[in-house]
C-alpha cells in the first residue's frame, strides 16, 4: 500500500459492483485514493482478486442472455433517465472528481458534461443501430442486415477524465445490447463509482454493468478472459500497446486511444488575442493532463513576435486547489506525476531550449503539500529534445518556429502521433490546405481542442490509436455490434421450381 499523510479518520473502502450489488472486496492488496491538493487520504481502493474479476464477467455473461433481447425502446428510456440523474447530481459529481483528481470545479463539470452528451446520444439508439434491406435482389429474394450485440465487453479508463471516458464507453456498449465490465483508474475511482450507482438507479439491470478495480493483473485478466468479446482502452501508449496486442491475440475486438503530441500552428494573419487566449487555455487547462492538450505551438513567420504576449498570458493564470474559486490550474494527479514533469522540464533546459516561463515550485497558500506546478513555457524547441519527443502530460508548452505553413505541416507530419492538431488563421485557403495535407486524425480550425461532438466519433490516428473504430458516434456502434446478413426467399406453395446447380439465385 502507498504511504501518504493520514487525517486520523479511517478512509472508506471503494466498492466493487458485481451482479447489481456494491460489495466489499476480499483482496489483500489495496491502494489509497489521495487528494492531490492536500495529500489527504480520501478512500482505499482494492485491487480485485482473480475470483472477483471472474465473478464480474460471469455476471455480465448471464445478464447478456436477457439483456440482448430487451426492447430497444426500453434500453433507450433507461438512458433518458440516466442523463436526467447525471444532470441532477452534476455538482456532487464535480466535487468528488475535483477532490480525487485535482482539476477545477468548472473543469470537473465539463468532464461530466462531455460524458453526459454521449449518454444523451445513447438514448437515440433507435436511430443508430439500424440495418439495411435490399428487396428482390433475385427473383423473390430479399437480403437484409442486422446489427447484433457482441456479448460481454470491457473498458479500461485513465485518471485524467474519470467521468467522461467511462461515459464514452459503457453507455454505448450497453445500449447496443451488450453487457459491460469497467476497470476505472485506481487513482480516482470514486466519481466513476458514483456514476455506476446512478446507472443502477436509472434502471440498468443487475449484471449489465459491473465495475472492478486494479492494476496490471486485472488489465491482463480482462485482455485474456475468453468470455470478453471486446475491449476499449484510453490511456498511455505503453499500456495501450500492451492491451491491444494481448487482447487482439486473444481474439477480441480492441480499440485503444493512446498518447499524443498535439500541435497548433499560428499564422501571422490569425486573430491575435483570440489565438493567444485559446493557446493558453488549451495548453494549461486541467494542468495539461489532457490527451488533446496543445503541447506544441508552431509560430509561423511574423507570429514569432507574439511570444512575449503568450508568456504574459500564461503567467497570469492562477494556480490553486481545484475547489478554490477563480482557480485556473489545479494540482497534477500524483507526486510521481509531478516528479516526472519536473524531470522533463530539467531536461529541456539541459538540452538547450529557452525556459521563458518557469512554473516550478509555485507558492500556493494553505496547500503547501499539493502537487502543484504552474504554467511552464519553452521556446527554441527542436524535435530532438526530450520535451518534444515525450508526452509531458503537464502544464508545459513547447514553442517552435517555422518560416511558412508547409514547413509547419512537415513538422507535424514527422511526429509519430496523430491525436489532434489545429491551425489559427483568417485565411480559408490556408485552412483548407492544412486540413488536406496534415496527417492527423482530428483537425481544428481556430479551435485548439477539436474533440468532436458525440454524433461523430473520436478519430485519433497513427501512433495515438490502435484499432480501426473509435469511441462514441457511428463508429462505436459498429465496434460494439456484429453485422449479420440474411438472404431469404419465401416460396409460393404452387411453385415447384427446379434444381439449380449454379451459384446464382434465380
From TrEMBL:
GO terms for molecular function: methylmalonate-semialdehyde dehydrogenase (acylating, NAD) activity. NCBIfam families: MMSDH (TIGR01722). This is methylmalonate-semialdehyde dehydrogenase (CoA acylating). GO terms for biological process: L-valine catabolic process; thymine catabolic process. Transmembrane segments: none annotated. Its EC number is 1.2.1.27. Belongs to the aldehyde dehydrogenase family. It is an enzyme of class 1 (oxidoreductase). Pfam families: Aldedh. Residues 24-486 form the Aldehyde dehydrogenase domain. It comes from Pseudomonas cavernae. It comes from the Bacteria. The keyword Cytoplasm does not apply. Keywords: NAD, Oxidoreductase. The lineage of its organism: Bacteria, Pseudomonadati, Pseudomonadota, Gammaproteobacteria, Pseudomonadales.
